[in-house]
Amino acid sequence: MNPLKSLIAAAWLAAGSSAAIAQPADADPLGWFTESSGGRLELAYGEPDTDNIAITFFCRPGEGAVHVQIFSEVPGDDERPMGSSWETSFDLLSGATQGEYRAIATMTETGPLIADARIPVDDPVIQAFRRSGLLTAHHNPISAETQRERRIIQLFLDTCG
Predict the structure, then answer these.
(1) pLDDT 10s digits, 62-105
(2) Are 72 and 106 in contact (CB under 8 A)?
(3) What is the CA radius of gyration of the chain?
(4) What is the C-alpha separation between 138 and 146, in angstroms, rounded?
(5) Sign of dihedral through CA atoms 137, 143, 149, 152?
(6) What is the pLDDT of residues 7-45, one digit of tens each?
(7) Of 16 and 151, more confident
(8) Residue-wise pLDDT tens digits, 111-120
(9) So what's the pLDDT on residue 129?
(10) Does the pTM exceed 0.70?
(11) Phi and psi of 15, rounded to 5°?
């Protein structure tokens, strides 16, 4: 993506894509949304403006890769000391495309954070996710439900690339 398009996409992602859309009271509050801070773009699945986040992708425009953070409860992890870190891995699936990614897990106040697996934007799972909006992370299906969410995912990954 050329620099002007990256700038426009980054501005769009930061300004408009995370805006709340009125939903029925019984609607699921979880979904895909973006945020921007300090030149870093974030794409997350969860409930905006809360700590209820399942996965976050982040990058700087044109970086060519995304960093992935997965928040997860893992049996036995509650016995690890606060702030401890260890090597781990997690799977991402998009449709029939699957990948295993090495990561560092860190014990936080809210539980383990499987953090900072750096994945190239042209990785087959990331590209399948970009095309389809389908994603399963750490055995948790978190696919895009709407065309708007799929467009946000595509713009985010295009901007990262």
Answers:
(1) 999 999 998 766 555 567 777 788 888 889 999 999 999 998 88
(2) no
(3) 16
(4) 22
(5) positive
(6) 555 555 554 444 434 444 555 678 999 988 888 999 999
(7) 151
(8) 666 667 999 9
(9) 97
(10) yes
(11) -85, -45
Instruction: Taking each helix axis as running N to C, give the angle between helix 3-15 and helix 147-160, from 0 to 180 degrees, rounded to the nearest 10.
Output: 140
Q: Which amino acid is at 52?
A: N
Please list, in sequence order, all residues whose beta carbon lies within 8 angstroms of the beta carbon of residue 142, skipping any fewer than 6 positions away: 45, 54, 55, 135, 136
Q: Please report which helix (H) or strand (E) contains residue 71, including its range.
A: strand 65-71
Structural contact between residues 66 and 34, judged by C-beta atoms closer than 8 angstroms: no
Q: Pairing mode, if any, of strands 97-108 and 85-94?
A: antiparallel
Amino acid identity, position 91? D
Q: Which residue has the tokens 């042209």?
A: 122
Q: What does 86-142 look like in DSSP terms, one character per residue?
A: EEEEEEEEETTEEEEEEEEEEEETTEEEEEEEEEETTSHHHHHHHHH---EETTEE-
Q: Extract the tokens encoding 60.
A: 């700087």
Please name every residue paired with 41 in a beta bridge, in sequence order, or none if there are none.
36, 59
**Residues with Cβ < 8 Å from 28, sequence gap 6 or more?**
none
